[in-house]
Amino acid sequence: MSNATKIELPQSVVFDMDGTLLDTETPARQAFSTAIVTIGYDYDADTYDRCIGTSQVGTQEILEEVYGAQFNTAQLYERWTKAFHLLTQNNPIQTKPGIRQVLEALHAHGVPMAVATSNQRKACEGALSTAGVAKYFQHYVCAGETQNSKPAPDPYLAAIAHLNADPMLSWGIEDSDIGTLAAVRAGLKVFQIPDQLPPSVATQALGHKILSSAEELLAFI
Prior knowledge:
Elements: E1 13-15, H1 25-38, H2 45-51, H3 56-67, H4 73-90, H5 99-108, E2 113-116, H6 121-130, E3 139-141, H7 154-162, E4 171-174, H8 177-185, E5 189-192, H9 201-204, E6 209-210
Parallel strand pairs: 1-2, 1-4, 2-3, 4-5, 5-6
Helix pairs in contact: 1-4
């Protein structure tokens, strides 16, 4: 392909982590379903689906709405974290299909990259390091590091600012509806690669690109 016909590369690219870069959503759901039973509640898939892509505060609000104000979120997170670590000790977290090729292609073109995640910084740094992809990212924006969490645009705008790029000339890569809305609100060109759930009708109406896998991103690089 000649230079004249190549698709224009972005100034920067910001990735979500869980379900986008890393295949964490399946073990996270399994660990949650185990943990919530151990503290005396039934696992409800629809409730868990509502939590996907939310911040820890957002998850707490949903759980208290469903299970009651007395729900012990701290105890759940403790059990959930332990169950997750047990699951992933024997089955290490993998990158999502095609992600390594996308990261390598962007890196080869000199495109700076960052991560905007609703996960805690310690978890983010550890997971990306263990997966062997931390080297591709110049910055992380993690839970509690911006005034507002996704679906507000703040995490994406902060990541773009760290990369000294223009949001309108940058890409956001997401899996969840909540994260996609955040990236769209920030003004990025957004690619959604759904993981656990298909995009809602409202999300589809945002006008971004919806892909079936990260491999499809390679056509744009």
